[in-house]
Amino acid sequence: MEAVVKKHHKKMKSGDVAFSIINYLVFIIITLICVYPFYYMIINTISNNELSANGVINFLPKGIHLGNYIQVLSLNGLPMAALISVARTVIGTVCAVLASAFLGFLFTQEELWHRKFWYRFFVITMYFNAGIIPMFITMRTLHLTNTFWVYILPAIVQPFSIIMVKTYVESMPKSLQEAAEIDGAGILTIFWKIILPTAKPILATVAIWAAVAQWNSFQDTLIYITDQKLYSLQYLLYTYINQASSLAAMVRNTGTVSAAMLASQQTPTSIRMTVSVIVVLPILFVYPIFQRFFVSGIMIGSVKG
Fold first, then answer.
1. Terminus-to-terminus CA distance in the chain, angstroms?
2. DSSP state of 262
3. Who contacts 125 (Cβ-Cβ below 8 Å, separation ≥6)?
4. What is the pLDDT of residues 264-284, one digit of tens each?
5. Half-sphere exposure of residue 249, counting CA atoms within 13 Å on the CB side?
6. What one-character DSSP code corresponds to residue 265?
7. What's the angle, vertex CA 285, arms to CA 280 and CA 289, rounded to 5?
8. pLDDT reported for residue 91
């Protein structure tokens, strides 16, 4: 009997090892599939531009140079657009996190006047949208068009983030708030000193969503902004990709780099790749900082109990 148990245990152990190996292989393949597009863009931006335009650069860079980045970063409007994108991402993320946290907390308070009505009023906006023209008329009536705040104010209240925070707060022990109320703490004190420090995982999750949405957005610039000083980096990416051929000719004709230097001649492909990398890299560096909070936050905030 003991020999049978040992044999069965050995088979199970071998099966576990095989299962783990297959799991690792599958996840490595998936990781490579996800990482390769970014790697492909980067190696094409630092390689010989003619080879890149001909599709020769697939796995290893050839004719390495940094001329693409130097020339693209010197394009008119790019530094200001980068500043606008950074500012809207930082300010917009902070405002969205604070609003989601406070509203999510308020909707857990039974003393809130018509709490269920106001909660449903916010939730229903997830499913109904007025459309582009009414939104534009509203923004123009509020004198927000061609202002920096058109990037911030419409994106502060996010119903789904409010739902996530509300669910997270409801999963917290009520004794925390009750003890604070016994000590004489008000709503704002409870929010700042108890809810915000305790809800870091879900707030980090909301911060990631808000930051990515703000950083990647370009349609609001397209609709509401005509002042070039308020263009975002993503909107410039959109225009550069659409005008890559003429932009490449303009960069080549600046005279800053000799046309004889084949590796540093700009092509439509090099323009597209370089600007894409410049736009994507910052958010790729931000995500790992919040990743340890993201998984726990989204799991706890999505399931009540």
1. 44
2. G
3. 159
4. 456 677 777 787 787 777 777
5. 3
6. -
7. 140
8. 93
Q: Nearest Cα to 203, choosing from 94, 70, 48?
A: 94
Q: How confident is the model at residue 263 (pLDDT cuts 50, 70, 90)?
A: very low
Tokens encoding 42: 């980067």
Cα–Cα distance measured from residue 127 to residue 168, given in angstroms and rounded to the nearest whole number: 22
Measured at the CA of 294, the angle between CA 16 and CA 188, to 5 degrees, comes to 145
Query: Which two tokens mark 235?
Result: 């909107």
The rounded Cα 173 to chain-centroid distance in angstroms is 31
Other CB atoms closer than 10 Å to residue 147's CB: what's the count?
A: 16
Short-list 202, 212, 221, CA closest to 283 = 212
- Cα separation, 274 vs 69, whole angstroms: 6
How far is the CA of 225 from the CAs of 75, 139, 238, 272, in angstroms? 20, 11, 14, 23
Q: How far apart are CA 169 and CA 162, in angstroms?
A: 10
